[in-house]
Automatic annotation (TrEMBL):
<dbReference type="GO" id="GO:0043565">
    <property type="term" value="F:sequence-specific DNA binding"/>
</dbReference>
<dbReference type="GO" id="GO:0043200">
    <property type="term" value="P:response to amino acid"/>
</dbReference>
<keyword id="KW-0238">DNA-binding</keyword>
<dbReference type="InterPro" id="IPR019887">
    <property type="entry name" value="Tscrpt_reg_AsnC/Lrp_C"/>
</dbReference>
<dbReference type="InterPro" id="IPR000485">
    <property type="entry name" value="AsnC-type_HTH_dom"/>
</dbReference>
<feature type="domain" description="HTH asnC-type">
    <location>
        <begin position="5"/>
        <end position="66"/>
    </location>
</feature>
<keyword id="KW-0804">Transcription</keyword>
<keyword id="KW-0805">Transcription regulation</keyword>
<dbReference type="InterPro" id="IPR036388">
    <property type="entry name" value="WH-like_DNA-bd_sf"/>
</dbReference>
<dbReference type="GO" id="GO:0005829">
    <property type="term" value="C:cytosol"/>
</dbReference>
<dbReference type="Pfam" id="PF13404">
    <property type="entry name" value="HTH_AsnC-type"/>
</dbReference>
<dbReference type="InterPro" id="IPR019888">
    <property type="entry name" value="Tscrpt_reg_AsnC-like"/>
</dbReference>
<dbReference type="Pfam" id="PF01037">
    <property type="entry name" value="AsnC_trans_reg"/>
</dbReference>
<dbReference type="InterPro" id="IPR036390">
    <property type="entry name" value="WH_DNA-bd_sf"/>
</dbReference>
<protein>
    <submittedName>
        <fullName>Lrp/AsnC family leucine-responsive transcriptional regulator</fullName>
    </submittedName>
</protein>
<dbReference type="InterPro" id="IPR011008">
    <property type="entry name" value="Dimeric_a/b-barrel"/>
</dbReference>
Length: 145
């Protein structure tokens, strides 16, 4: 099958997750391929939609955002559009917003300058729905090492 992912593709994906700016020669060395063969594999993974974009992760504390929280919000779908302007503020940053299964639920991945800013945000969104907050203690992204 043309779109099948093999062990080499999985190693390429792992390496790119660690460092999306790696050269194809470096990537090839890491997965025991030539630079051109690694490039061909990456292009195939892009073509079939496995690799869709290359991003960066920003260390929020470096920018002064000390509090990292995941906020699950239950509200009517129609209310989110009216509330989007309130989601932009100098005291906090929306990292990701997900619509998830359930009773019209959303999950906001957010960073706040201070705990008081989180409290203020929660007070603001009380009017549109019920929320549950989880503070992020540690990033486990690199647990595979």
């Amino acid at each position: 099958m043309k779109n099948k992912i093999d062990e080499i593709d999985e190693r390429i994906i792992y390496c790119l997750r660690k460092n999306g700016r790696i050269t194809m020669k470096e990537l090839g060395d890491m997965v025991h391929l030539s630079g051109q063969a690694a490039k061909n594999r990456v292009e195939k993974l892009e073509d079939i939609g496995v690799l869709q974009k290359y991003t960066i992760n920003i260390d929020c504390p470096v920018f002064g955002f000390k509090i990292h929280a995941l906020i699950r919000l239950q509200m009517e779908k129609s209310n989110l559009g009216n509330y989007e302007k309130k989601l932009k503020n100098d005291r906090y940053r929306m990292i990701h917003c997900y619509q998830v299964t359930g009773e019209q639920c959303y999950v906001f991945d957010m960073a706040f300058l201070e705990i008081e800013d989180l409290h203020s945000f929660l007070k603001d969104i009380e009017e549109v729905g019920r929320c549950e907050v989880n503070l992020v203690l540690k990033n486990m992204q690199d647990f595979e090492d």
